[in-house]
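Kindly inspect this one:
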Amino acid sequence: MRILGLIAATSTLLAACGSRDSGPAAPGNDSEAPAVGGTAPAAAAEAGGKSTGSWDLQSSGEGVALVMTGADRPAIRLFCPAGGKRLVVNVPGFKPVGSEERLSFGSGGEAAALVADSRGDGQRGGVTGTGAVPDDLAALVGGPVSASYGAQRSGPHPAPPTALARVFVTACREGAAPPAPAAAAASASPCLVQDGKPVTVAALRAVGTEPFWGARIQGRCVTYSHPDDQKGTRIWTRFAPGPGGGLWSGTLGGKRFELRIRPGAGCSDGMSDKRYPLAAELLVSGERRTGCAEPA
C-alpha cells in the first residue's frame, strides 16, 4: 500500500515550509468517518487567509477528531478512525480539481502530503486527504495549522490548545483508541485533567425544559444533548470551580458554550414533582436557558 509522505517543498502551504517525501499514499474508503463537529454542517468553510475560531476535540467508538470551527462552521477537520493508524484531513471549503490528487497540511516548517480524491468528498464536503499517521504528527499540529490543495489554501488557523493536541496525537498513534490521559495523571481520563492537574469535581447531570436539553458532566467534559442530538456531543471545556458547583466554558459549533452549576435546593424541572439540589444556567447557540442538576 502506498503510504503518507512528507513533501520536499510546498509553495502554497506555509511560508518557508520544508518537508520530506517518503512516497504517495493510497486513497482509502473513509465512509465510516463521521462528519465530526456535532451540529456543524459538512459544507463550505473558511479557505484562504488567516482565520479565527476555536478547536474542539471529540472522541467516540468511531475514532478521535480535532476540529477547527470558524464562522459557525468547520474550517478543517483532522480525524483518526478507530481500528487503524490512519489520518484523514478534510477541508470543507476546498473545491475538487480533477488533476490534483494531493492535499498538504502542517505547521511552521513541517508539512505532510496526503492523497486526495479529486472527485471531492460527498459525505463531508470539500476535499479530503488520507494517509498513514505521520511520525511527526505532534509537530504538524504544534502551531498554527494550514492546508493547501493545488492553488487553494486554508489558514493559518490558530494553534490547537496543547492539551487537546497531545490527546489527539496519542490517540492517533494508538490506532484511535480511547484518548490517553495527560502525563501528569496517566491512569485518569483526559476529562479529569486540566493544565496537567487533576480536575476534582463530582460527576453531574443537568436537565432543562422549554426547550428540552440535557448535559452530562465528567470533570471538564460536558456532553450536551437535545431532541435532535439525543446521544449528545462532547464539549471540551475549561472548568472553573465555584461554591457548590462551577462554570464549564467552551465552544460548540463556533459559538460560546457555558454551563454554570450552583446550589439551588428545591430546583424544579417544571415537568415533574422532583426537586433537585442544584440549579443550572446554560448558554448555547447564543441563547440562555435554565435548568436543574444533581449528582450523576
